[in-house]
């Protein structure tokens, strides 16, 4: 009756035992099963060795109990890891890490596997078993007695080889006991039953030789097969012959095997073994050594065997980051291996490391993170980005280091899809406004414009409509030619977000002056973009029904794929070349590029054809040959300050995100641009007043040009023109009275009279100036002749 209420003691075991896997048949007293830990989330996968107690096998029962006791006390990375055990009067359970037999692993490996990876894998596996035997023989004074293909197991995840089969393990000073007949092929030729071996490691070294042969040839059936060494690598053949020598005393110690094979050109000297050993000893390495190692590791991971990176190297990297001082150097290989993880595991293991790195104040760490952002941003949750990462990234917008600022700008392209309304439409645009107007590096100003065009599709429609046109028109007045070109391209790439009315009233008037830009690339882009916008307006003029479809994306949060900014040009300038461009274009000369009509008239014809970057480059090259680098940097900073001051004089409140005010101040920008022109570069030299007769026609032409220039300065003023708003339109209706018509006609005549008077006044003023200049030249000529006569 009580047996009905009795429960199976095996149910107290912590693991749920599954189906058996391929075993070594009669070569082991155990049956290997897959198992899962009870009560754990998802169930931790383990392996359970099962021994069934039967009547008449008390000898085997003692061996199984001895194996459990022995394995429980052995802790070594290359020895099978003990987890738990349980014994009843019917069965013995031994739980270990999840493994399979080496025979099963080698059987699955096909001949088509990469030979290089296979060679690395075998070298690492044989090294692990050799290291385990070195620990047993030299440190623990134990003798395994049964090293072969059937007593080595492989971790199913990492692929590491683990020494098991400790059923016949004894102390090194114990006499040798003959193994069961199933292991007859592994008997050393020099040992006899009840006789002490010649050395403490001779038996296990013979077994290591047998294992090496089986690794390359398969199961050993007779020790006579050990003489066939064709498949064994040449690097290993010398050691192998010593291991399988009939002379027991001539077999090397496992420590000697490791030392010889780890020397240059040895079998254990390769990238995989070096990397794994370095990671095991990383806590004892210097910081410089760690940095060099991690920089090399990222390029080696592709050649490592499958599973080693994810299950062996990645945990070591995470531990090195969390408990060591590896810092950002660990990031490239960490992210490369992290891509192999499922998303849930990535969130649990890698994301916390990334978030922790973003809090670092080290510039190298922040720069490396921003450069690698595209490799892990897809795994980040929006909440993590907005709460933990973006506040740290935003600090880089105002960093004093130009490389940090540039990479921070680029990072927004990857972060934008995950940013909330405030971080994207308020905070980011506020930083962009300041960078585009006041940053001293032309490359950074350029990249700010580029990035704004790339993230336009993620902006809120109302913010987008308010900001884009003002920001891009602001960029068209930048003294840096690539910045102007980027602004033109941005207008073209985001054309689907602009109302046609804005195209006609704001965009085209801003683009037209760029058709006379000093830079050929800017002019080409301006013409191309203008033609595109005009074509769009013309199509709507021909078919007004197209207006709705062309303005469909203006107020939509998700634009059509055909208009996506992803097809736009890449980054215009990088931080590496920002200094080079600064010396070329970020100068007061190029800041006047928009006063084209005035500057080109005072330049020689050869300079009119050259771009601003070319002329500046030649100037820089000439200057650098006569000055030191210190003075050049000082000059560049001075020029940049002038350009920045010109930009800051514009009536633009970037703190208020008022990007829309920029296009309303063209006259201010031009005035400051012209004020930066050096007088010495355009005013005539004293000797220029002396002109030969042959040069007189050219001088007269130049004089006429100068007069025209002066006339434009004097006469083309807005005050001389009556605004159109002052005139009433003439409406021919039946109710129109004669008095209103006479009044309008009188106003028109009055305006015409004023224009004629102004024209006459200008002509008189021009003639007076011309007469004064002729008189001055004649006086100078007379004085010169008198001086020559006196001399």
UniProtKB/TrEMBL annotation:
<comment type="function">
    <text>Regulates COPI-mediated retrograde protein traffic at the interface between the Golgi apparatus and the endoplasmic reticulum. Involved in the maintenance of the Golgi apparatus morphology.</text>
</comment>
<protein>
    <recommendedName>
        <fullName>N-terminal kinase-like protein</fullName>
    </recommendedName>
</protein>
<dbReference type="GO" id="GO:0004672">
    <property type="term" value="F:protein kinase activity"/>
</dbReference>
<dbReference type="InterPro" id="IPR011989">
    <property type="entry name" value="ARM-like"/>
</dbReference>
<feature type="region of interest" description="Disordered">
    <location>
        <begin position="740"/>
        <end position="768"/>
    </location>
</feature>
<feature type="compositionally biased region" description="Low complexity">
    <location>
        <begin position="674"/>
        <end position="686"/>
    </location>
</feature>
<feature type="compositionally biased region" description="Basic and acidic residues">
    <location>
        <begin position="747"/>
        <end position="768"/>
    </location>
</feature>
<dbReference type="Pfam" id="PF00069">
    <property type="entry name" value="Pkinase"/>
</dbReference>
<dbReference type="GO" id="GO:0000226">
    <property type="term" value="P:microtubule cytoskeleton organization"/>
</dbReference>
<dbReference type="InterPro" id="IPR034085">
    <property type="entry name" value="TOG"/>
</dbReference>
<keyword id="KW-0808">Transferase</keyword>
<feature type="domain" description="Protein kinase">
    <location>
        <begin position="15"/>
        <end position="304"/>
    </location>
</feature>
<feature type="compositionally biased region" description="Low complexity">
    <location>
        <begin position="610"/>
        <end position="631"/>
    </location>
</feature>
<comment type="similarity">
    <text>Belongs to the protein kinase superfamily.</text>
</comment>
<dbReference type="InterPro" id="IPR051177">
    <property type="entry name" value="CIK-Related_Protein"/>
</dbReference>
<dbReference type="InterPro" id="IPR016024">
    <property type="entry name" value="ARM-type_fold"/>
</dbReference>
<feature type="region of interest" description="Disordered">
    <location>
        <begin position="655"/>
        <end position="689"/>
    </location>
</feature>
<dbReference type="InterPro" id="IPR000719">
    <property type="entry name" value="Prot_kinase_dom"/>
</dbReference>
<dbReference type="InterPro" id="IPR011009">
    <property type="entry name" value="Kinase-like_dom_sf"/>
</dbReference>
<feature type="region of interest" description="Disordered">
    <location>
        <begin position="606"/>
        <end position="632"/>
    </location>
</feature>
<keyword id="KW-0418">Kinase</keyword>
<dbReference type="GO" id="GO:0005524">
    <property type="term" value="F:ATP binding"/>
</dbReference>
């Amino acid at each position: 009756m009580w047996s009905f209420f009795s429960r199976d003691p095996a149910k107290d075991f912590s693991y749920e035992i599954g189906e058996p896997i391929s075993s070594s048949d009669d070569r082991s007293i155990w049956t290997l099963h897959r198992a899962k830990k009870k009560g754990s989330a998802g169930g931790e996968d383990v392996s359970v060795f099962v021994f069934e107690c039967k009547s008449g096998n008390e000898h085997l029962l003692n061996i199984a109990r001895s194996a459990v006791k022995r394995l429980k006390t052995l802790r070594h990375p290359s020895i099978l890891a003990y987890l738990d055990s349980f014994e009843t009067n019917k069965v013995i359970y031994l739980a270990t890490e999840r493994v399979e037999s080496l025979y099963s692993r080698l059987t699955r490996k096909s001949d088509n596997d990469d030979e290089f990876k296979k060679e690395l894998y075998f070298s690492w596996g044989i090294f692990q078993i050799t290291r385990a035997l070195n620990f047993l023989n030299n440190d623990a004074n134990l003798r395994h007695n049964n090293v072969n293909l059937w007593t080595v197991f492989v971790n199913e995840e990492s692929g590491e080889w683990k020494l098991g089969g400790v059923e016949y393990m004894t102390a090194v000073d114990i006499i040798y006991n003959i193994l069961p007949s199933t292991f007859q092929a592994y008997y050393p030729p020099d040992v006899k039953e009840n006789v002490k071996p010649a050395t403490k490691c001779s038996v296990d070294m013979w077994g290591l030789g047998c294992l090496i042969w089986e690794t390359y040839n398969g199961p050993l059936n007779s020790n006579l097969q050990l003489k066939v060494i064709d498949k064994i690598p040449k690097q290993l053949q010398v050691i192998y012959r010593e291991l399988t020598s009939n002379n027991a005393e001539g077999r090397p110690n496992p420590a000697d095997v490791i030392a010889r094979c780890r020397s240059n050109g040895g079998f254990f000297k390769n990238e995989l073994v070096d990397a794994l050993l370095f990671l095991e000893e990383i806590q004892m390495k210097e910081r410089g050594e760690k940095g060099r190692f991690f920089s090399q590791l990222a390029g080696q991971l592709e050649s490592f065997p499958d599973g080693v990176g994810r299950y062996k190297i990645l945990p070591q990297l995470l531990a090195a980051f969390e408990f060591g001082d590896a810092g950002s150097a660990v990031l490239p290989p960490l992210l490369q291996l992290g891509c192999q993880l499922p998303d849930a595991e990535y969130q649990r293991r890698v994301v916390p490391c990334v978030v922790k790195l973003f809090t670092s104040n080290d510039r190298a760490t922040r720069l490396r993170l921003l450069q690698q952002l595209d490799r892990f941003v897809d795994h980040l949750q929006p909440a993590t980005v907005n709460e933990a990462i973006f506040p740290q990234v935003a600090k880089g917008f105002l960093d004093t280091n130009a490389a940090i600022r540039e990479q921070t700008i680029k990072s927004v392209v990857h972060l934008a899809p995950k940013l909330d309304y405030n971080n994207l439409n308020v905070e980011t645009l506020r930083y962009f406004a300041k960078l585009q107007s006041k940053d001293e590096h032309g490359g950074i100003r350029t990249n700010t414009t580029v990035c704004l065009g790339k993230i336009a599709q993620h902006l809120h429609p109302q913010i987008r409509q308010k900001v884009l046109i003002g920001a891009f028109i602001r960029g068209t007045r930048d003294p840096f030619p690539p910045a102007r070109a980027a602004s033109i391209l941005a207008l073209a790439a985001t054309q689907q977000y602009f109302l046609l009315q804005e195209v006609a009233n704001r965009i085209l008037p801003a683009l037209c002056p760029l058709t006379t830009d000093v830079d050929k690339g800017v002019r080409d882009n301006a013409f191309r973009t203008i033609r595109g916008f005009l074509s769009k307006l013309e199509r709507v003029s021909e078919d007004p029904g197209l207006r709705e479809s062309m303005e469909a994306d203006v107020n939509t949060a998700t634009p059509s794929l055909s208009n996506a900014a992803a097809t736009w040009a890449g980054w215009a300038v990088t931080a590496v070349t920002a200094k080079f461009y600064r010396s070329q274009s970020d100068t007061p000369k190029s800041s006047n590029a928009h006063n084209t009509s005035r500057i080109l008239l005072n330049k020689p014809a050869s300079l009119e054809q050259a771009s601003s970057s070319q002329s500046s480059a030649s100037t820089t090259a000439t200057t650098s040959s006569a000055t030191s680098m210190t003075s050049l940097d000082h000059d560049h900073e001075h020029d940049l300050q002038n350009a920045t001051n010109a930009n800051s004089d514009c009536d633009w409140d970037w703190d208020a995100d008022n990007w829309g005010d920029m296009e309303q101040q063209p006259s201010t920008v031009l005035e400051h641009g012209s004020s930066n022109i050096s007088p010495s570069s355009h005013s005539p030299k004293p000797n220029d007043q002396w002109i030969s007769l042959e040069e007189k026609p050219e001088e007269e032409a130049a004089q006429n040009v100068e007069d025209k220039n002066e006339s434009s300065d004097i006469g083309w003023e807005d005050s001389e023109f009556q605004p159109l708003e002052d005139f009433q339109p003439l409406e021919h209706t039946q109710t129109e009275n004669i008095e209103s018509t006479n009044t309008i006609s009188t106003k028109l005549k009055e305006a015409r009279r004023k224009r004629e008077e102004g024209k006459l006044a200008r002509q008189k003023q021009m003639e007076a100036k011309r007469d004064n200049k002729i008189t001055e030249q004649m006086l100078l000529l007379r004085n010169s002749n008198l001086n020559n006569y006196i001399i």
